[in-house]
Amino acid sequence: MFDFSIITVVKFSEKTIKKNIISVKKQIHKNYEHIIVCHVNDAKSLKIIKKFKNNKISLIISNDNNLYEAMNIGIKHAKGNFITFLNADDVFRNYKVLKYIKKNIREYPKINSFYGDVEIVKNKQIYRKWNSGNFLRNKFFFWLAPTASNIIFKKKYIKS
User: Fold this and answer.
1) What is the pLDDT of residue 140?
2) What domains sit in the chain, N to C, each tagged with a CATH number?
3) Rounded CA gap, 151 and 143, in Å?
4) Is the whole model's pTM more than 0.85, yes or no?
């Protein structure tokens, strides 16, 4: 059993998928699996992913109809206690992300999900920054909610 299942959905992401895989591969905390769901028509991304494929990376070639169907395919294959999504053009900010999350899971074992900060980078510049802070329910009414790429859920609470 893995601590984390990191699900990446890929469709025509040949320019970004290598950085994504490397950011996961270099994590200090090694008890994870990286599930990559790649669309069957994306030969360029598939070629790159296959170069990195190993016992930590599961490649699922899919003929999904949309992003959410592909995410659900990844969830069905996940073996980790916690699941997170890392989009094909996203990377972990540093190599201690999973280690830090695992520390918080140990510290707060009754919590079912965690979320963190996100930096959206365009043209090598921070375009938008979302600081997580404390969870406040009323933020949802103002669309100030975490994104899928910065939430980690206990698998037992996710249904695909």
Assistant:
1) 56
2) 2-109+148-157 (3.90.550.10)
3) 15
4) yes
